[in-house]
Amino acid sequence: MTDVRQEERLIEGLKVIETTETDNVLRWDGTVLYVEHDVYHNGQLVHRKYRRKVTADVARVLLSVIAGKA
To answer: Over the stretch 7-47, which tens digit does the pLDDT of each residue have?
Structure first.
């Protein structure tokens, strides 16, 4: 069973509650390290598999862990 995480926030300017769901799996497309999210506005899906980039700091830490330097 996949562990799915949810986040929720109010977007004042749009008057919607934005909810995101993710399995928190890091993916690499050869250029970008990212996590996929499904984005909902008031419960309606607006983006499927939206790619949220991992920050440079997180990528550096992951690289050091993989290289065995952590």
So the answer is: 889 898 888 999 999 998 999 898 889 999 999 999 999 99
Q: How far apart are CA 58 and CA 62, in angstroms?
A: 6
Burial 50-66 (b: 16+ CB within 10 A, else e): eeeebeeeeeeeeeeee
Per-residue pLDDT at 63 exceeds 70? yes
CA–CA distance, 34 with 28 (Å, rounded to integer): 6
C-alpha closest to that of 58 among 29, 30, 24: 24
Cα 14 to Cα 54: distance, rounded to the nearest angstrom: 26
